Amino acid sequence: MDFGGDDMDAGRRGTDGTGAGADTGLDSGRGGTHRVGSGPDAGITDTGAGLTVASGTRGVDGVTGTGPTGTTAAVDTTGTISTTGTVGTIETTSTTSTVGTTGTGISPLRGGTRGRTRALATEAVHAGREDLARSGLHAAPIDLSTTYPSYDSRGEAARIDAFAADGAEPEGPPVYGRLGNPTVARFETALARLEGTESAVAFASGMAALSAVLLVRNALGLRHVVAVRPLYGCSDHLLTAGLLGSEVTWVDPAGIEDALRPDTGLVMVESPANPTLAEIDLRAVAHACGSVPLLADNTFATPVLQRPAERGARLVLHSATKYLGGHGDVMAGVVACDEEFAGRLRQVRFATGGVLHPLAGYLLLRGLSTLPVRVRAASASAAELAGRLAADPRVTRVHYPRIGGAMIAFEVAGDPHEVIAGVRLITPAVSLGSVDSLIQHPASISHRIVAEGDRHGAGVSDRLLRMSVGLEDVDDLWADLDAALGHATAGRAAEGGGLNLREEHAGSAAG
């Protein structure tokens, strides 16, 4: 499979983050490198041109392979794929970025022991747990207390006064569950280390986390937000509806600087974006923001693929429900940021009560320990499936990000609702980032709340499906997709619909 000069070579073994791991990854091609490895030494770098995928399950050094249907696709010079009339395309942005070279997917993390830096995989396992062995523990304890005894009421008063002043975490024993919890604090410490920020503040959901950010800025009279579509549908709705008193100006990335006003309190982007997987040059966006904080939603990428704070984002948002938890059994949100902003977020969390339950904090800390392994393994399968979908005549367009990842978006020639109804192994459900694969129709669920015109303007067509690739065998996933696509095509044929993909594609793009 050819990625616009970047070649994906399945089964090639690499070392030190420059090739694939033990099984599958992305190797270097003609225009740069884009590498996603699944083994322990695999890393991710991306310095090439726009990424495109041609048909084929195997490509070698920029040579296009043939896909499951026997068709062949050619790569044009624009960073998107041109086809021979029946094969879908993969589209990505053409921004250039470097994600790291150390075999962890990103640069080494600060901290560690004896003055050494530690790799992401090591931090994922040990961050937030350093004191356990010295305390005679192996697994992190779960502290379910809502309140904590204290016989020093004067000391309690002083600590509460200090928290009210700047939101700093109270020193000494805990006070009350809404002020903080030891188990949740372990997760916050670990996530901050992985994202490369001073602090992190966890909330009951991703939307609670975003709401807290908006309330912090609103309290300063900075109610104006500049945002780039697409965003997660509920984030879009929260901004557009002005539910927290915010006013939003929607712009393309190039228009951010011109849209800033004296009362602009925040610039918000999501890259890769939900659900189209569009990517943004975060460094360029951060420069355009000037002194206005940039909030980057990093839910899809996770710190395994990119760390927005290293590119100038002051705030890094996660729906921790997704990849950070990783098993579909915890709901949470978190903002990684500097300590000054973290203090304000803690004050809002205390006042509004959007606290994370300690059991959720424990599950998230446990989830982080396998995050790099899960993301790399799922990314390898996603890249393979993206290539197979691009070669399938029942698919008109495939979106897959240049930095890799486990998310795929694709537009179908047939009825997308029939694809959803036809899967058996893949779970038809909203959300993403679990160990099992999920598929959903954004126009019906995750982005239904966004006005139709705004959805289409952001590239969210009515034929678009979004798939979160899990840890199942890739051939089993493909067999399920293949059957579901056949189900949709058969249904369309039974209704007398044609299969002219050029006409279907044009209709989809028009809305």
Q: Which properties best describe this structure?
A:
511 residues; disordered C terminus; 32% helix; alpha/beta; globular; disordered N terminus
Radius of gyration: 23 Å
Beta-strand content: 5-15%
The coarse silhouette is globular
* β-strand number: 17
Number of helices: 15
Report the mean per-residue pLDDT as an integer: 80
Biggest sheet descriptor: 7 strands, mixed
Helix content: 25-40%
Task: Give the spatial strand order of the biggest sheet.
Answer: 6-12-11-10-9-7-8
Roughly how many Å apart are the termini? Answer: 30 Å
Provide the structure class.
alpha/beta
Uncertain spans: 1-89, 92-105, 497-511
Topology:
Elements: E1 2-3, E2 6-7, E3 74-75, E4 81-82, E5 89-91, H1 120-126, H2 153-166, H3 182-195, E6 199-203, H4 206-218, E7 224-227, H5 233-240, E8 247-250, H6 256-259, E9 264-270, H7 282-289, E10 294-297, H8 302-305, E11 315-318, E12 333-337, H9 339-352, H10 358-369, H11 371-390, E13 395-399, E14 407-412, H12 416-422, E15 427-428, E16 438-440, H13 452-457, E17 464-468, H14 474-494, H15 501-510
Parallel strand pairs: 5-13, 7-8, 7-9, 9-10, 10-11, 15-16
Antiparallel strand pairs: 1-2, 3-4, 6-12, 11-12, 13-14, 14-17, 16-17
Describe the structure.
The chain has 511 residues and is of the alpha/beta class. It is built from 15 helices and 17 strands. α1 packs antiparallel against α3 (182-195) and α4 packs across α9 (339-352). The protein is globular, with a radius of gyration of 23 Å. The model is unreliable at 1-89, 92-105 and 497-511 (pLDDT under 50).
